[in-house]
Request: fold
Amino acid sequence: MDLQKLEIFVCISRHGNLSKAAVALDMLPSVMSRQVAALEQACGGKLFHRTGRGMALTELGGRLLPRAQATLLEYKNLQDEVKSQHGVISGEVRIGLVPSLAQAIAGPLFRCMRDEYPGVKLAVTEGVSAQLDAWRASDSVDITILFRAGRSELQNEDALGDVETYLVGAREDPVTAGPSVCFADVAALPLVLASAPNGLRADVEREAQRQGLKLNIVLETNSLMVQTQVAARGDAYTIMAGHAASQRLGDGLQASRIVAPSIVRTIALSVASHRPASAATRLVAREAKKQVAEAFRTMGLEPR
Reply:
């Protein structure tokens, strides 16, 4: 069983079609078919169901796929590591970000890599914190930057700072006109909140439960744009971390810090730990920390 056979197997499983995979790898379909047959013989069973509509993984193929992907990725990382020993850092780094942080740092981080480390390619994926944890555990991403409910939740992660939470309403709205608003007053307001699962929503719901309050959630959405638009029209209020609120204050919004108590969230960076991080991954993690600090500085919200 060699790497070329594994690469062919993974490519066919991705495209679901021998002809498309042959184009992707610039190989003859007949050559690829023979390689798959040889791999199936080595594995002791069929890896694909062959139909008129394409090729689908068998149960055996489904079990082999994640291991084949991990083997190819490890080989690629080894090649990149060898190159880095000669002073050239290269390779693809997959970074997962919560949407509000993606808007703030993905662009600057890309420009930094393009201008200073052209051999490093970024693949950026957005997701809520629970998704990012799952993707890191399954080796779908190399780095995650997300939020925790506090530093006590950090496990093998670097804390990049703490941010407070704000109630966001329409411009000239009396409730959000002052510098702060009590949590008990927030709970009674009509709220548009992120759909579950969402870390910030979970923090807010926990505090409401602790105080024996019932939140007045009138709309749930997984879109920050919808939250912003509904709040800007004065139809409801939304709750955002400080950096996210700051990014949107030019959209007809104003924000007031939630107190009694404050809801503090920790920005956490984590690198996948099931295998040694490549030189490119370590580089991107280091630069991402700088970009987070710079994003908050330019927004006037220094992380605590």
